[in-house]
Structure formats: structure tokens, C-alpha cells
């Protein structure tokens, strides 16, 4: 079959396939690929490399299936692409896309769980569940696709403005953390004393994880678009934002456990500063 005819057939199949079903199939392929690559390489950060890439592709998929004419879907796609571009840049500058780079928490879990139990975790949570979550957080766009043609309203505007403000907040927090770590490493390399091992200034004065707070809140704003589209305050697409929030609860607790083990002074910071929601320090 000529290449042009093959492309036409593929395009026709894509146009005939239900957008949600296509997204689920793509998610399954990505999950299987991540699992296979992780097993072959012994590096379990494959989903980490997709974290900022898959959601923009899903969001653009739903906007494209509406012919790029639905304003709400276009706004969702634009915002998620902005989110993905910023996160990709931040992940790349920390070396996340280097072939041997791996999140420091996976080796810790491998040691705690042992080979067999960790492989079970990889085959259920690390590769499949996290890939599914990356689709679920974008599925308010599926609700918007089903209600395509519904005019934008004040709720859309509020969600978009809040999303942008949260994106700015996350950008500022990540930049403050990046500058602190670069300065700390530079002082260590020069043999100079380190005043602090972890950042407590800027936005980190009001939250121990302001970037985590902004990240979760942004996806709740994406859920608000589904409310604006459907008029239903509680719909099935809430699952993504809800499960992401639950995931952050566990991962933040684990991250702080490792930080406290490395830096005992972190306990005093925990006692004075809000964990996630920004608030005035108690001292």
C-alpha cells in the first residue's frame, strides 16, 4: 500500500475511533512500553520522563478531535501545553532525561521491598497506574468534548486565571529551589561552609512544598472546566485530580522521611512551616 494511502487510512481510523477509547489505547501502549524498558534497563524512571509529555498530547488529542474549533478544549490544550513545557524544561535542566538518570526514591523502594515485591510494584503501580493517572488528570477534556459547542462562561475564565497564577507560583518555587541548590553545590565545590542544607526562604517560608501545592491545584482547575462544560459539579472526571492528590500525600510523606533522615534539622522546619497549603510560619 502506498504511503499516502496508508496515512489516509490511519487518519480515517483515528477520526472514526471514539476519542476516549483512542486515548485509553495510547495510554495502554505507553504503560506497556514503560514497563518493558524499565525491566530491560533496570531504570524505573521511565514514566517520570513522560510525566510532562503525555498530558499535553492527550489534551491536544481531544482539541484536535473537535477540529480545533471548540474554545474550551483549545484553552485546556493551551494551558496543559504551557504546563508541560515548563515542567519539561525544569526536568531537563536537572538531568532527568539523561539515560541513566533515575528518581532517588526508586532505589530506596527497591532496597526496602526486595526484588520480587518491587517488580510487582513496577508491574502494577510504577508503569501502569502512573500512566493511567497521566490520562485521568486530562479527562475533564473528554467531558468538555462531549459538551463541545457549549459557550465559554465565567467558570472557564476563573479556572484559566487560577491555573495561570498557580503555574506562575510553581515556576517561582522551582526556580527558587534550583538557585538554592546551585548555590549550595557551588559553595561545597569551593570548600566554603553551607549555611543551610535545604531551602526555607521565598515561597518555601510559607509551605514546605509550594510547588507540590501548585501542581495539585492546577489539575483541580482543569477539572473545573468539566463543570463549566457540563453544568454538573460532581462528575466522573474528578477521578484524576482526586487520585493525583492522594498520590502526592503518599509521595510527599516518603520524600520528607528521606529528607529528615539526611538532614535532622529538617524537623524544626516541619514544626514551623505548613506542609503543602501556603500559610504564615508559626515562628
Report what the structure shows.
This protein is mainly alpha-helical and 283 residues long. It has one domain. Helix content is 72%, strand content 0%. The chain contains 12 helices and no strands. The chain has helices spanning 3-16, 19-41, 46-50, 54-65, 71-93, 105-113, 115-136, 140-146, 154-189, 210-230, 238-262, 266-272. 31% of the residues are buried. The model has no long low-confidence stretch (mean pLDDT 95).
Instruction: State the helicity in percent bands.
Output: over 70%
Q: Tally the helices.
A: 12
Number of domains in the coordinates? Answer: 1
Q: What average pLDDT do the residues reach?
A: 95
Extended strand count: 0
Structural class of the secondary elements? Answer: mainly alpha
Report the span from N to C terminus: 72 Å
Sheet with the most strands? none
Strand content: under 5%
Q: Which regions are unreliable across 5 or more consecutive residues at pLDDT < 50?
A: none
CA-based shape: globular
Pattern of helices and strands? HHHHHHHHHHHH
Work out the radius of gyration. 21 Å
Amino acid at each position: 500500500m502506498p504511503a499516502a494511502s496508508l496515512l489516509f487510512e490511519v487518519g480515517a481510523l483515528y477520526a472514526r475511533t471514539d476519542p476516549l477509547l483512542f486515548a485509553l489505547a495510547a495510554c495502554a501502549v505507553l504503560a506497556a512500553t514503560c514497563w518493558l524498558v524499565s525491566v530491560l534497563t533496570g531504570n524505573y524512571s521511565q514514566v517520570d520522563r513522560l510525566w510532562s509529555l503525555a498530558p499535553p498530547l492527550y489534551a491536544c488529542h481531544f482539541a484536535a478531535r473537535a477540529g480545533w474549533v471548540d474554545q474550551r478544549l483549545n484553552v485546556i490544550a493551551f494551558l496543559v501545553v504551557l504546563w508541560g513545557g515548563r515542567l519539561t524544561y525544569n526536568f531537563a535542566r536537572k538531568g532527568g532525561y539523561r539515560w541513566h538518570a533515575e528518581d532517588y526514591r526508586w532505589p530506596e523502594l527497591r532496597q526496602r521491598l526486595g526484588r520480587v515485591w518491587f517488580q510487582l510494584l513496577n508491574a502494577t503501580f510504577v508503569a501502569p497506574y502512573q500512566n493511567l493517572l497521566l490520562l485521568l488528570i486530562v479527562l475533564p477534556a473528554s467531558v468538555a468534548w462531549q459538551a463541545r459547542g457549549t459557550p465559554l462562561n465565567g467558570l472557564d475564565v476563573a479556572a484559566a486565571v487560577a491555573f495561570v497564577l498557580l503555574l506562575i507560583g510553581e515556576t517561582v518555587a522551582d526556580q527558587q529551589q534550583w538557585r538554592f541548590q546551585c548555590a549550595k553545590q557551588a559553595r561545597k565545590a569551593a570548600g566554603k561552609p553551607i549555611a543551610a542544607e535545604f531551602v526555607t526562604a521565598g515561597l518555601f517560608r510559607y509551605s514546605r512544598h509550594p510547588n507540590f501545592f501548585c501542581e495539585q491545584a492546577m489539575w483541580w482547575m482543569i477539572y473545573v472546566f468539566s463543570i463549566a462544560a457540563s453544568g454538573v459539579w460532581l462528575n466522573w472526571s474528578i477521578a484524576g485530580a482526586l487520585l493525583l492528590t492522594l498520590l502526592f500525600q503518599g509521595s510527599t510523606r516518603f520524600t520528607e522521611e528521606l529528607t529528615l533522615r539526611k538532614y535532622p534539622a529538617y524537623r524544626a522546619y516541619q514544626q514551623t512551616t505548613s506542609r503543602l497549603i501556603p500559610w504564615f510560619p508559626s515562628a
